[in-house]
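Homework help board

Subject: predicted structure for assignment chain

Our instructor gave us this sequence and asked us to write out the predicted structure in token form, then describe one feature. I got the tokens but I'm not sure how to describe them. Can anyone check?
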Amino acid sequence: MTKSTNNKPYDLEERTFQFAKDVRVFIKTLEKTIANIEDAKQVVRSSGSVGANYIEANESFSKKDFIFRIKISRKEAKESVYWLRLINETNELSNSKMAEELIQESTELKKILSAILEKSK
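My token output:
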């Protein structure tokens, strides 16, 4: 696989897959409270949707559909930041560094998707 200088894959489909996978690994480390269970469900959905909608965008039949799917993917990345921040700030995590890295990755994905959107208009 081709990697960039910061060890993140150039392939955005692979990068979004890795993000969703890393979120799932992180979620398994959380204490099983009612709030964490509910927040975990939300972040699992949104993190997976980033990549799923990006793949849909790449398979779209029209420019309009492509832009629509990229917007959804960006929205899901923003939502992932929200849930990860909430989890990070309402728990005393032994692995808060992992949470912060996931928040950073989600923020970077959102920026990448915003740039794709701008170039597509």
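Reply (TA_rk): Your tokens look well-formed. For the description, you could write something like this. The chain has one domain: 12-120. That's the kind of observation they're looking for.
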